[in-house]
Please model this.
Amino acid sequence: TVIDETLTQISEQFGVELDLAKVDLDERKTLQLFRDGRTSGIFQFESGGMRDILRRLQPDRFEDLIALNALYRPGPIQGGMIDDFISRRHGDVEITYALPQLEETLKETYGVIVYQEQVMRIASLVGGFSLGQADLLRRAMGKKKKKEMEEQRKLFLLGAEKNGVDDQRAEKIFELMAQFAGYGFNKSHSTAYALLAYQTAYLKAHYPTQFMAAMLTSAMANTDDFVKYMNESREMGIKVRPPDLNQSEVSFHASGEEIVFGLAAIKNVGESAIRHIIERRESEGPFESIFHFGETVDLRVTNKRVLESLIKAGAFDSLHSSRRCLIEILDKVIERGNRAQRDRLHGQKGLFAATDSDSKFNNQVPGIEEWGDREKWSYEKEALGYYISGHPLQKYGAELKNFSLTTAENLTEQESAREISIGGVVTGFRPLQTRKGAAMGTFVLEDLTGSIAVTVWPKTYEKCRDLLADGEIPVLVRGRCESDGRGETRVLASGIAPLDSLWKEGIEKILISVRVPKIQEPLLAKLQDLINNHPGDCPLEFELLKKNSYRIRVVPSKLTGIKPVSSFVQGVENLFGENSVTLYT
Model:
């Protein structure tokens, strides 16, 4: 569906009828996208773990993608097959074959048995099995049926002997096949998946704006995916314009190098209402004001609830500067619109227009002050499921960079029991009680990449009860990551603090990590100036990093402390590189 939508937009905007069946499967720009791990939105390749493996492997041919599709499963991962595959690929481990005749079958996977078809081919080459017999062997190995395996072993050894392979080597090959057959994946299946992945990656690499517009349309019903692709668009440098009654269509669409927000992504606005609005816009021309809109559309279809959602989403922003003002005059808009439509129905359009000085060309609205940012963004998120004109976290860049060690998107793949800290906005807080009646709570923490569930047990809740009662506030959550066994991850909070307060009271120690080649007199002099200009009480330590991760810790004896502020951290990172400062909280 995403591919089809992307191709449609490419055709409409560039007049290009792209045939993906004819795309070069070793095209450099597409493979570079995989090597860089920029695969958010790419079929089968968008998880954090897979992106990490892509960056490690550096695939340079389509066959590498087929292999990764087959290997990225629990069995091969736990069995160390991916690490072995990557090591062989880069020449860190010598590629060997038990028999010279196996090279043709295993060369493309660097001597590692990855596919079920390879097991069958080896059974045929070494054991003399027909393909039907080889398939029975594959099944027996995959299901680990001991009795069947023993029978197949005898047949294999007998066939190997006839082909001139000694028993010891044949036994070793059979054991190797048995070991990998349990992990083996069907190559034809993996190839079909890899082809679809490659085609989506090709579109993302060559037509990024059209591709991301199609991705956003596909994700409208899933808030987490929608947020992820909105952020992906931003990181790619693609601006997503807010919804606009005179520019937006039903779905997201590319306009030049930008994406125009799709009206169907606005909550409580049905598709019938959207299509009616677009139809009236095309037949009557652009809407000139909210009054003109009310007089033009059928208010039985675009009712008050629809209008409220459009206003809160910012769809009228190009016509009026204050969303709050539009909400407050909405009843008047509907009253005038209904009156105008009744008059037209009774043939009184001329009389109405002549006597009503408040016609659509004279639509002054009162100067009512706009909502504050927090209220405006809250309504916007209510209508869109996403902050688009601003974000409560946008002024906390330094706090998120220095204190938040992960993101909501990455947390979905973390192992249980890992200690983490993550910054975000508290939403959907629910006070609860334990079975013994102790107060506790749950909420959803939203950051710039998505959301994660947080549970606050009584001991922690007692310390931050008042903080959570404030509603949607930016906080740092410390705690332990936990998986419920169904693929859902949550954080068990051990501490919650407002982002506003972290620099003042949240830092126990600052560590500066410097690689030995950067220990140069001019840089050290500048560091000394930074320290002198930020006197304070926070302990400061140094860590000298040598080759092979050898570390030396230095605690300055004559230094009383540092004032923990973002300007000091930024100054150090300007000297010694990003992530050279660690803040202990």
Q: What stands out?
A: Residues 250 and 274 are 6 Å apart (CA to CA). Confidence is low (pLDDT under 50) at residues 350-362.
